[in-house]
Amino acid sequence: MTIHAIDLAQAASVARRAAEAPSSRLLEIARTGSFRTSLKNDGSPQTSADTMAERLVRQTLQASAYPAEAAVLGEEEGETGEGSKWRWVVDPIDGTMAFARDIPVWGTLVALQCVETGRVVAGAIRLPGTDETFWAWQGGGAWRNGERIHVSTTAELSRATVAAGLLGQFRTSGVEHFLGPLVDAVDDLRIFGDVFAHVAAARGAVDAVVDPDLSLWDFAASRILIEEAGGTILVRHTGRGRGHDVLLGTPAVVNRLALLLEF
Fold this sequence. Notes:
Layout lengths: L1 E2 L2 E2 H13 L2 H10 L4 E3 L5 E3 H17 L6 E4 L3 E3 L5 E9 L1 H5 L6 E8 L5 E8 L4 E6 L3 E4 L2 E2 L12 E4 L2 H6 L6 H7 L2 E4 L2 H9 L5 E7 L1 H13 L3 E6 L6 E6 L1 H11 L2
Parallel strand pairs: 5-7, 13-14, 13-15
Antiparallel strand pairs: 1-2, 3-4, 5-6, 7-8, 8-9, 9-10, 10-11, 11-12, 15-17, 16-17
């Protein structure tokens, strides 16, 4: 499929190569603990591996030069190439705290966004710890290691398995009150956040994810993956913390959760 004169399948291929570029080095660093850790201005953790990984992703995107003159917005280095119609959105390590403790639920996220509309049209996610690569493009479906994936068919909250993001982020986004209704309404509430929960929803392993206090790079690639897997993603702009609360997963469960939580 093409949109605004770019080939979205090719864009997804570029995203996949970029997401995979730092994979082997990150896996080795996580397992050996050979990194330095510091805190950003907002108090969130950062490792020397985050910076290295983003540079490798950027180098891959720049080498591909596709789409031509696309900007790059990364968590660690900010935005370069402003003024383009297209922007790559990069999270070099989503789940830095898990990475720092060698818990293999972290990943690298790369997404292509139309600047004018804000729509994400292609993206890829690499989970080195589970040796999985996910990718999707508008109209092209969602894929995991070469196989199509789909969200679940669960329709009722009483039968749903729901993942809740990191509990501290419910507090920073001011939505601690979500937790009580979730416990009461769903069959199984799992507490794990970051990209691991998002891809679990895309492949139907969980039915929905409630993930507050996210930045754009935390969910841009997940957005196209969920949509192309047949799911729904709702994003609420909060004006607090990182700015976005996200609810994603199979449509029936997401819609019922949105009503329950007044999302």
